[in-house]
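We close this part of the discussion by returning to an individual protein. Part of our work consisted of pairing the sequence of a single chain with a tokenised description of its backbone. The amino acid sequence and the backbone structure tokens for this protein are reproduced below.
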Amino acid sequence: AVVSTQSTGDQGCLLISDELNHSSLILGARLCGAKIAVFKHNDVADLERVIRKNIVMGQERTRRPWRKILIVVEGLYSMEGTMCDLPAIVALKKKYKAYLYVDEAHSIGAMGETGRGVSEHFNVDTRDIDILMGTFSKSFGASGGYISGDKKTIDHLRRESHAHSYAAPMSPPVARQIIASMTSIMHTDDGKRRLRQLAANTRYFRTELRKRGYIIYGDSHSPVIPMILFTLANICAFAKECLNRGLASVIVAFPATTMLGARARFCISASHTREHLDRVLDILEELDPIIGLKLSKNRKTSAFLDFWKHLIYKQ
């Protein structure tokens, strides 16, 4: 979907990408033929600097004005747990007459009062976003994805996109699952309850992790919660010890992160109960003396250091 959408790019066009965009976005950008510029993660000031610089300099060699400038961001960054500053990005897009592409893969169905993603969370009119993309494989429990935009853009993709021309159609059961999930999330009391429960679970788990001295990334409303472990040895030990205690964990390391940015990623669900979350917190407390998980300067204890001092003095 990403590659097919960004086939709208061409020589003479500029694509400005967040430095921490998903690898699928990066691949699509490289294949579309446009010139690529990168701005610092979620830094609107740096984004404006990049836009202004490229408008002034124009195209390489010819210095002609860019035919189009497309800003590409994610609604919710899957490895960082941060949300894009959508209102400020939309304001920049309008100011410099650029186009905006937002990947809502991790935010659609999970954020906003009716689950419509970051645009609803920030109360941004979707007509100000030129291309919205998302997946059905997460919040909707199905497969496939979607691309939305004006009729001219979608008609172009249907004509020119290799992925559209050669892909297999979605099966009826999958389509039915997506429709049922959307209806439940957006139009039923149970769907609204689940969204409120997800938000409450996110606030509770983030607050407890931070209070206990773990380093976590992301916005307070983000149900994606990365906990920094730094080294490859730490994440291997973490995954093994968690599994021994009946906890399936998701660990991420280089090249998906920086070399010292290895982390465990918690994805909170509305189906999690307070007992589930407390059990995970208890397991983390058990593992801290073994691996050393509480690395925040604000930690109240230094169990990891105490553990090694105990071993040294015992010897």
